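Translate structure to sequence.
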């Protein structure tokens, strides 16, 4: 810098300040993350309501099996979308746990499909579903609880 130009140092200081402020916040914005999470939750809720209606209307084991297969796809898709979100650093672990829970839930339902298809009645199929492991559900609940405590997700 030229010693005769007093504005040179001020311009450099302002440029450094502007660059440092642009990088503040620890990564992606809270608002963008919350918007992405809300979109995924709303889409998932819409799909789950529609699938629940189809399940209640099912009169055969193949119909129930088809609903469960579709539910597993919806959970897989939601887990994939959550894993693609870019959470702020304090929400990263909970976001990873949420994606894992959704994938675990999908895997649980996918693993039940052979047993469901062997069911002789819809009551037997309902029993298969009722006896399923709840690991993915618990992971999802814990992850949303953590995100809510961090201020990232409104309780549903």
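Result:
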């Amino acid at each position: 810098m030229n010693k005769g130009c007093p504005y040179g140092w001020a311009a450099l200081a302002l440029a450094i300040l502007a660059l440092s402020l642009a990088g503040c916040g620890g990564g992606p914005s809270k608002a963008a993350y919350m918007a992405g999470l809300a979109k995924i939750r709303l889409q998932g809720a819409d799909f789950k309501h529609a699938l629940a209606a189809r399940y209640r209307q099912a009169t055969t084991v193949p119909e129930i099996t088809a609903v469960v297969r579709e539910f597993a796809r919806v959970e897989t898709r939601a887990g994939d979308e959550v894993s693609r979100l870019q959470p702020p650093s304090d929400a990263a672990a909970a976001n990873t746990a949420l994606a894992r829970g959704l994938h675990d839930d999908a895997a649980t339902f996918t693993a039940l499909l052979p047993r469901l298809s062997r069911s002789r009645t819809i009551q037997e199929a309902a029993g298969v579903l009722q006896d399923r492991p709840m690991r993915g559900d618990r992971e999802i609940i814990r992850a949303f609880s953590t995100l809510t405590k961090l201020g990232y997700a409104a309780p549903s």
